[in-house]
Design brief:
The protein is an alpha+beta fold and about 325 residues long. Helices cover about 40% and strands about 10% of the residues. It contains eleven helices and nine strands. It has helices spanning about 5-15, 60-70, 115-135, 150-165, 175-180, 230-235, 245, 260-275, 280-305, 315, 320-334; strands at about 20-25, 35-40, 45-50, 80-85, 95-100, 195, 205, 215, 225. A five-stranded antiparallel β-sheet has the order 1-2-3-5-4, covered by helices on one side. The protein has a two-stranded antiparallel ribbon with strand order 6-9. Helix 9 (about 280-305) packs antiparallel against helix 11 (about 320-334). The longest helix is centred in the last third of the chain and has 25 residues, at about 280-305.
Length: about 325
Amino acid sequence: MAEAELKIWMEEHVDGFQGPMRLHRLAGGQSNPTWRVDTPNQSYVLRQKPLGPVLPSAHAVDREFRVMQALAGTDVPVPKVWALCEHPAVMGSMFFVMEFIEGRVFYDPRLPDQTPEDRAAIFDSMNQAFSAISTVDPMAVGLGDYGRHGGYVARTVNRWSKQYRASQTRSIPAMDALIDWLPQNLPQREEEVRIVHGDFRMDNLLIHPTEPKVLAVIDWELGTLGCPISDFAYHMMTWRVSPDLFRGLAGAVTPGSGIPTEEAYIADWCRRTGRDKPADFDLYLIVNLFRMAAILQGIAKRAEEGTASDPDAHEVGARAVPMAQIAWDMARRL
């Protein structure tokens, strides 16, 4: 890493930056390398596009920078972004610098180490953060061209049907059935155009070090314009899958746990965003479970080819089957 070049760039582009500096790689952020930059006076986070050849639309750290910059000043809690470097000469690939926020990351949404009161407060703060995203007018914050307008759910089904077929390693009858069923059963309402996070999970939030509240929503790599109901349904999958399948909550929402029921959590989002719960909300859940199953199948394919970075890729990829089955069972009930 060209630390000398980075220091010069930081001095020129980040207000108030003063060295010396020290870098170390942060855990997580496997898709885009993420670094902590420490100086005597302040710490920063540097989010970098991977070195080497990547797909043209993947690892779009410039889009992450743009959406967080646009959301500054809204009710959406995001880190302050300082500067974007599009020239590979500094670090070998494009990157941006944002503020370092001291916070906790919870990977288990059951929050086993928290009190019921703190669990309830964290879930409420998470709901509030998501609701804020769902109510931002992208045109008002300069993001009117951040993605295509309309057809988001149909494009999701089409894209992940193709991705699944391209990564298929064995027959999954539930996926075959969904690929036939979903195009004939898409939501009929006209889609709102809102900012979507694309991967809103508890582990993509920074929680205050001691208080039960969200300080920042991070990892906007999949951010675009799309349907807020579908984006929310992706988030709500957590309530439909088991903890061992994909960091789920199924079976964990019990009286006195502090974790809201699915219905209560949806009602809070509807109240905060001024919406009524769609009668066909389960259809949006099915679409997102199908999408997740296709993503897991892609991991299975990389595991089979020996190109997966995760040592548990075979085990993770195998979860495509039960994920698809949950979606297909829901579809048959509809």
